[in-house]
Amino acid sequence: MKTKDILILVATMTGTALMAAEDIADFCNENDIKTKILEMDNIDINVLINSKFPILICSSTYGQGDVPDNAQDFYNNLKDKSPNLSHIKYALFGLGDMTYRDTFAFGGKKFSDLLESLNAFKLGNPFYHDASDGTLPEEVAVEWFKNNIIKKIKNT
Ligand SMILES: Cc1cc2nc3c(=O)[nH]c(=O)nc-3n(C[C@H](O)[C@H](O)[C@H](O)COP(=O)(O)O)c2cc1C
Question: By alpha-carbon position, which residue is closest to atom 30 of ligand 1?
């Protein structure tokens, strides 16, 4: 990987966030940016802490506004350890459903709030996809990434 390449970390219950991540990865590969996709249950928080690459987090929401099961340990360990992440740049694509009005996309929002509180630098505004709006999350994810994030990554 080169410094302009991207590490994509995925928090998902039923694979939608992974699909969005894979389509963003395909778009990146077509634009000369290499990607590595890792699901959060397969990694230690040091993968994030020690990353030399910008991070893209794709996270859905479950329970009552919780991060998905496969991300619980990762999220809690990061929160408990609270490392300084001022060297980390990240973008965030969250998935939720407005049917859960009071906790809409809280999984992604929890990640964004946590990373921000640990001084990580936000690349562009996070996007929160609403599963009830009839759009395809992977299409929306690629559009968001293409219009808002890729330039920022190329300029870092
Ligand atoms: C049991 C259950 C609980 C959910 N809870 C929430 C929630 O609290 N807030 C929200 O915005 N979306 C919630 N969702 C919606 C999912 O986050 C959304 O469908 C998402 O696209 C699923 O992505 P995934 O397949 O990557 O896990 C819930 C879905 C299910 C099935």
Answer: 62
Tell if the pTM clears 0.85, that is, is over it: yes
Print the domain residue range for 141: 6-154
Q: How far apart are CA 62 and CA 104, in angstroms?
A: 10
In a domain, 100, yes or no: yes
Note whether residue 32 is domain-resident. yes
Residue 95 CA, ligand 1 centroid: distance in Å: 7
Amino acid of residue 144: W
- List of residues 6+ apart from 73 with CB closer than 8 A: 40, 41
Question: 61: CA distance to ligand 1 center in Å?
Answer: 5
Task: Tell me if 64 CB under 6 Å of ligand 1.
Answer: yes
pLDDT in tens, 55-79: 999 999 999 999 999 999 999 999 9
